[in-house]
Design a protein that fits this description.
six-stranded antiparallel beta sheet, 7 helices, about 325 residues, single chain, PMI_typeI_cat, Jelly Rolls
């Protein structure tokens, strides 16, 4: 038995702010009118991805890692993380605004939740006219000012809001207060963590008339009150990997594919490709694999050379 390019059954999550674009735009098998998230590759407790293609169909990602730790994860990733898969990949459809929230850093997350922190990045796949993101403060703030505005229901007055369009990228370090706005479809790459401190939820209620839990006190010492610069500018040279984000947790490149290119890499890390536009083929040894927008592919580290063909936009992610 040998490893090959892997796909997984999406783990679909209904959210109070979700909609139908995961189906209409990304071809996900949803029947709900409020599907908010498609977890593409995950080893979060109780949400472990299961292979959907090839001879390992039906096998959980954790079982596959335990069977092929270095071959799948990579020599350096295995050395650093053991059999833990360190990243989580998602697509999100925000029909309504998400809550304003913040994620703790590694130290706080380990101390409070025995978890990784949650550094993440967003690639805007689609944005309706006037769609917005909230990222950080307009001006340097403080815990006292934050609590005062929260109490007075004026928190939005001190937060930085930005209109967004397709192709924009935002890198959110832990501690950055943020919210995805209505009308956006996002590809998200993050540390393996499901720790979110919800600060403000626009006073909305669910179908039962209940508000969602807030984590105002927990967020106090997790927030970075400085002004942040989160947008990432990047090149879009065709048929090459253009670097977008490089951080200790992951590297992300953007590939505008028009024709073909050969990928050659070492076995330090697995590679993941998120198809954020168009469609393409991947050729490995004598096999061809076909992918389209919304597909996410895990290339085991032991696969060092392959070719891709088509007209597509790809996010290429690995750990360096």
């Amino acid at each position: 038995m040998k490893l090959y390019p892997l796909q997984f059954h999406p783990i679909l999550k209904d959210r109070i702010w979700g909609g139908t674009k995961l189906k209409t735009y990304l071809n996900k098998p949803i029947s709900s009118e409020m599907a908010g998230e498609s977890w593409e590759i995950s080893t979060v407790d109780h949400d472990v991805s299961v292979v959907s293609n090839g001879v390992y169909e039906g096998t959980s990602l954790i079982d596959l890692i335990n069977e092929f730790p270095e071959q799948l994860l990579g020599t350096q990733v295995y050395k650093q993380f053991g059999c833990q898969f360190p990243l989580l990949f998602k697509y999100l459809d925000a029909r309504e605004d998400l809550s304003i929230q913040v994620h703790p850093n590694d130290t706080l997350a380990k101390e409070r939740h025995n978890s990784f922190g949650k550094t993440e990045m967003w690639y805007v796949m689609q944005a309706d006219t006037n769609s917005k993101l909230i990222i950080g403060f307009k001006d340097k703030s403080s815990s006292e000012a934050y609590l005062k505005h929260l109490k007075n229901n004026t928190l939005l007055d001190i937060l930085d809001t930005k209109e967004v369009k397709k192709g924009e990228v935002f890198f959110l370090e832990t501690g950055t207060i943020h919210a995805i706005g209505a009308g956006t479809v996002i590809a998200e790459i993050q540390q393996t963590s499901d720790i979110t401190y919800r600060i403000y939820d626009f006073n909305r209620v669910d179908a039962s008339g209940k508000t969602r839990e807030l984590h105002i006190d927990l967020a106090l010492d997790a927030i970075n009150y400085d002004v942040v610069s989160s947008e990432k500018k990047y090149s879009k040279i065709e048929n090459r990997s253009n670097n977008v984000v490089q951080c200790p947790y992951f590297t992300t490149n953007f590939i505008p594919l028009d024709g073909g290119m050969t990928i050659s890499k070492n076995d330090d890390s697995f590679h993941v490709y998120m198809c954020v536009g168009g469609s393409f083929e991947l050729k490995y040894e004598d096999e061809k694999y076909h992918y389209t927008i919304g597909d996410t592919i895990l290339i085991p580290a032991k696969i060092k050379n392959f070719e891709i063909f088509g007209t597509s936009e790809l996010l290429e992610i690995y750990i360096s």
